[in-house]
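Schema walkthrough. Field components (list of strings):
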Amino acid sequence: MTEFAVELRDVVKEFADPGKAGELVAAVNHVTLQIKDGEFFSLLGPSGCGKTTSLRMIAGFELPTSGEVLIHGQSMGKTPPYQRPVNTVFQNYALFPHMTIGENVAFGLQMKGVPKAEIEPRVKEALEMVRLPGYEKRKPRQLSGGQQQRVALARALVNRPEVLLLDEPLGALDLKLRKEMQLELKTLQREVGITFIYVTHDQEEALTMSDRIAVFNAGRIEQVGTPADIYEYPATEFVAGFVGVSNLIRGEAARQITGTAADFTIRPEKISLQEAGAPVADGRCTIGGTIHDVVYLGAHTRYLIDLDGGGELVVVQQNLETTSMDVRAARGRKVQLVWERGHNRLVARSG
Amino acid sequence: MAAQTIPLPPPSLARRLSTFFYRRPRLSLFATLALPLFWLVIVYLGALLALVIQSFYRVEGFTGQVVREFTLGNYQQLLEPANIDIILRTSLMAALVTLAAVPLAYPLAYYMARYASPRMKTILYVAILLPLWSSYLVRVYAWKLILAREGIIGWAAEQLGLSGVLDGFLAIPGIGGPSLALSNFGVFIAFVYVWLPYLILPIQAALERVPKSLLDASSDLGAKPNTTFRTVIWPLAFPGVVAGSIFTFSLTLGDFVVPTVLGNSQFFIGQAVLTLQGTSGNLPLAAALTVVPMMIMGLYLTAAKRLGAFDAL
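Field assembly_structure (string):
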């Protein structure tokens, strides 16, 4: 047994191109990935990047065109979903509408042939775990979206899978509920100690919950790392742009700041704004610019600044002293942008 | 900057009318439904009521005139063995046609709902509906030709040296007859053929509404394909099957063309009604006999409701 809960080895998945008859497109293109036991691992990327297809290959709904999927060191080959030691929480919950909540949660146990006497307490326990005690007799349509979501979670976890797959499970919930559920999921994962593989397009969600993240783009993995790695040290232009605001500086502006024309990024919250012409300390980068647009966001303010050397940067400042009134007056003002040189990140251009 | 008011256009009659109805949604709804309501309540239900009332009248034996006096005599007459025979024969045929049509319709409906490309689906829709666009009578006569002793089935049996088998089959009492075209089996085949589209489409619609993710979920939770079918797909498609079976069952129950063209001389309800009100001129008894399929359908729908067929509606 290896330490990896799930491994993808050079996995390719091709589908028939809906646009061009007879041609194939690779939804997943030579992906290799190792997910450790007990990890909360996120597959992050825009829609159509191959993250969901990768998850579906782990679950067994799709088979790889080439390459290999291993679960706890065992090659899955053509093993159908109903024989894999994983369970899935689906994007739209996929609760069986003709069954009660209790029957939904009991479904997996019945399939496994767990004795009846054992099923009932386990269903009860699972519903208590997701804070829906006593909901056994209700039907899915009598529950709110957040409650259905929790039932879906209970229905998967009650089987004690080795790996839990979650396909954008919070996508249909409103923002406040989503934030609550993020924390709840994270807590739950720590309690049960099961490996979670979590698909999302929401970078904030991935950063909040994950131990590690794989950033997908166009069927390939751009970077794998901890949330801090991904955010602070984006390996590619795509990662820098997808996770947070990219603030890519290239060409003439880059030369003015660092002396070379190599592309680099700087996170918007690392930059401070000063009056034009104010003195700058050693070891700090600086460039002049004009405030082009201002967005007041309550806790902080986002400035869009046209750089003197060409290009534009986003700067985020906490509203420690400023109010919405001050913010309005800032438009069109000349400013000086200053930040630690150490925050510059050289990035590779994404293919 | 002062906000500029945009003057509203002068209210024309049409605009005033639109506003009037827009602000009175109930009145609009009533105006929309007035015509169909009139049709359903007065014409449709009215005709049914007239029929039921008629069934309690009697015919003066001597003059053949309908006498408007309340009597249960017609219903008593229905209990005579000959009439019971007709009712049982028709109900059995309707049940068998329905049972036989389901395994034919279901796989096709399943293919259409799950696997067919949009193009293939259109082709199949047309193929299923196409027969309904041609005369039903013509299609039943086509079956008479197919099933006749000199027809293609008889010919094929002869070529294959199976005439003996066919004759043996036709000799089975209750099913056979002088030829397939003059047997209850021929009636059965033609019924299954003419009503099949009415079963395929509701099943297909019901299956279409079962999200693919439910099948994924079932298999993810450890259910093998046949278990998924039994526990997830079938229960969710069941209302569609029942909806379709109501068509196959009720249409068979009331039909008189197929048994007239293809059957032997044994009557079905529809034929009996036709003969009673036409040849015999006993309109009240004919009316009483048409009440029978209505009651059978009432029982059928009650049973379907008990089975939970309408829970998903």
